[in-house]
Fold this sequence. Notes:
The chain is of the alpha+beta class. It contains two helices and eleven strands. The chain has helices spanning about 1-45, 160-170, and strands spanning about 50-55, 65-70, 75-80, 85-90, 95-100, 105-115, 115-125, 130-140, 145-150, 155, 175. A seven-stranded antiparallel beta sheet has the order 10-9-8-7-6-5-11, with helices on one face. It has a four-stranded antiparallel beta sheet with strand order 1-2-3-4. A hairpin with a 2-residue loop joins strand 9 and strand 10 (about 155). The radius of gyration is 23 Å and the shape is elongated. Residues about 15-25 have low confidence and may be disordered.
Amino acid sequence: MKKFSKILFGVIAAFILCITSVNFSEASIKTDQKNAIKKYHSLVKGTSGDYKIVDINGDKVKDLLWMDTDSRYYKVYTYRNNKLKCLKKFDYARGGNLYYNTKKHMVIMVRGLFGGRETYVYTVQKNSLKRTKKYSIDYDRSSGKNKTIYRINDKKVSKSKYLKTLSALEKSCKKVRPDDDYIL
């Protein structure tokens, strides 16, 4: 009986320890979430542009996706150890769009150029962005004709393949828009 009591006591103690550590962890995440949102709002306050606050990397603390029209940069921030960390700062040149997919942990940055357009696809890990695809349109004017060249990861592809794959990708994402979290 003593042996059974010791085992039962050990199991109950381990269970209580697990529950309190889970509750502490959830409380810590909620605190980080509130602090992150406050920092993001103070960062974008007084600037122009569109932004969205979402958990893009899956760590249960929201991140900031920002199309900063003052500096003409896309910016992706995360919150770690009570500090903001800029994961990516990307010049969007002559305009573009910013898309995201929280389920696939993905950010798409589109920028217009004088001689074409580039679309970069990034997967978001906890502390970094990794480029997984590059779509580009270039215009070849050297031959006297305006020839459009379509590329995926710097490899020439047909117009239909380019449009089909890029369209499907953009449809799977949401666009950062002025009505999203817009408190500038």
